[in-house]
């Protein structure tokens, strides 16, 4: 008998028919003699709809009240799914995040899981019940509900799998696995048989939303093997694990991130310490910096540009104006950019990967504004307008 954790995303439970479809996947697994713990997201676009509703009332609502609102989405889906399973004749119980033992820090909207206290979960499993847990939520030290950030149900599932030492953690979604590019956008995207944690972590962080990046980080830390598969089409998915056995591929995939802003400081004094001053002030505010570009100094001045998440752009500009206005430097932000990246451990042992990517962009007539690389990634910043075209061109160069 195995303990299996199954997670179902919002589109997998979007309507009554889909809820019953998911219920039958769960009961089939249970009837084979397994213990099953299920994590479920809010139905369809519920979370987005709740955010819109909040904006109608108060666009500056506190993060605490936003979390109180957003946790409601998952409360609906767990109870409906449990009702469907009752109807299929299997013993079942639904639990909110706090009932399932999720304790988090107090960062409303992006809370981190401190622990999953498993007593209640274990009691229900021992009582032979299928347990349905609300994803994306927990409880902080003030006994207030928190949420884990968008796409956080993946992390809830991995946390439960780690805490219960589950035998399998299956992430069911609306595509049949992890592909070399978003299969909804890129013709010829190919399904990967497997991918390493490190590659998947970069892929997710750079925009492949099929898995939440924090869930991959946690899966790596606790060595939880993930299987990404479809709730609608019953076929083999993609395995995410430490070592991927697939025959060597130069790169695993191409992705884009449009949640990017470029911040530029033009004409700052070319003296030691300016970069330190600017990035330490940004770090103090918790602003994550990505690609950085510094120009060669000329006439005693230099320019520095970097990228950050769009949501941080206004704060970053205000901080930098505060530092550099006095020296006459010009601070600006640009949100019409996108980052296009390739990911793959294979590039470490092959030369010419960057030139292949840049060649594809050149042939598509796309200008590169900034470039950054790591051991297993190459990213370019381009005009947002050309992001999809760039992904397709680069994908074609590597995958045909
Ligand atoms: P869920 O609601 O199940 O959590 P998400 O919408 O978060 O599902 O993630 C699934 C979506 O991720 C797919 O519908 C697909 O369009 C998108 N996606 C982006 N990049 C990739 C990729 N490389 N492989 C598979 N899916 C991808
Ligand atoms: N419902 C939440 C969201 O839409 C969590 C999730 O789907 O993983 O972000
Ligand atoms: Mg998701």
Backbone structural class: alpha/beta
What low-confidence regions span 5 or more consecutive residues with pLDDT below 50?
none
End-to-end separation in angstroms reads 44 Å
Number of discrete domains = 2
Which small-molecule species are bound to the chains here? Answer: adenosine-5'-diphosphate, aspartic acid, magnesium ion
Notes on the structure:
There is one protein chain. With 400 residues, the protein is of the alpha/beta class. The protein has two domains: 3-243, Carbamate kinase; 244-400, VC0802-like. 34% of the residues lie in helices and 26% in strands. The strands form five sheets. The protein has an eight-stranded mixed sheet with strand order 3-6-2-1-9-11-12-10, with helices on both faces. Strands 13-18-20-19 form a four-stranded antiparallel sheet, with helices on both faces. The longest helix is centred in the N-terminal third of the chain and has 25 residues, at 63-87. The chain is globular. The structure holds adenosine-5'-diphosphate (ADP), aspartic acid and magnesium ion. Aspartic acid (ASP) binds at residues 9-10, 41-42, 47, 73, 135-136, 150-153. Residues 9-10, 41-42, 47, 73, 135-136, 150-153 line the site of aspartic acid.
């Amino acid at each position: 008998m195995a303990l299996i954790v199954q997670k179902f995303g919002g589109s997998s439970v979007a309507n009554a028919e889909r809820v019953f479809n998911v219920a039958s996947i769960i009961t089939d697994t249970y009837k084979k003699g397994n213990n099953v713990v299920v994590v479920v997201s809010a139905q369809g676009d519920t979370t987005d709809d709740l955010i819109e509703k909040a904006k109608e009332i108060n666009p500056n609502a506190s993060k605490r009240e936003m979390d109180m609102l957003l946790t409601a989405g998952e409360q609906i889906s767990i109870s409906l799914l449990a009702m469907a399973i009752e109807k299929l004749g299997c013993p079942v119980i639904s639990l909110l995040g706090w009932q399932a033992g999720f304790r988090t820090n107090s960062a409303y909207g992006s809370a981190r899981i401190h622990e999953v206290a498993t007593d209640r979960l274990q009691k229900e499993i021992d009582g032979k019940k299928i347990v349905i847990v609300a994803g994306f939520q927990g409880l902080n030290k003030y006994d207030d509900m928190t949420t884990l950030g968008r796409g956080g149900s993946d992390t809830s599932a991995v946390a439960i799998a780690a805490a219960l030492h589950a035998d399998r953690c299956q992430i069911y979604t609306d595509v049949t696995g992890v592909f070399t590019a978003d299969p909804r956008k890129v013709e010829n995207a190919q399904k990967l048989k497997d991918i390493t944690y490190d590659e998947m972590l970069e892929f997710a962080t750079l925009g492949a939303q099929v898995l939440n990046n924090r869930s991959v980080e946690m899966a790596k830390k606790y060595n939880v093997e993930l299987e990404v598969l479809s709730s609608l089409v019953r076929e083999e998915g993609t395995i995410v694990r430490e070592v991927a056995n697939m025959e060597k591929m130069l790169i695993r995939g191409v992705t884009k991130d449009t949640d990017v802003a470029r911040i530029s400081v033009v004409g700052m004094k070319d003296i030691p310490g300016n970069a330190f001053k600017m990035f330490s002030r940004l770090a103090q505010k918790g602003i994550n910096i990505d690609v950085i570009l510094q120009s060669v100094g000329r006439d005693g001045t230099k320019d520095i540009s970097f990228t950050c998440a769009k949501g941080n752009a206004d704060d970053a500009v205000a901080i930098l104006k505060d530092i550099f206005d006095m020296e006459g430097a010009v601070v600006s932000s640009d949100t019409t950019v996108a980052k296009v990246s390739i990911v793959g451990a294979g590039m470490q042992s092959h030369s010419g990967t960057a030139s292949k990517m840049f060649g594809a962009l050149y042939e598509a007539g796309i200008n590169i504004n900034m470039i950054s690389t790591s051991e297993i990634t190459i990213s370019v910043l381009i005009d947002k307008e050309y992001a999809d075209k760039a992904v397709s061109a680069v994908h074609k160069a590597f995958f045909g």
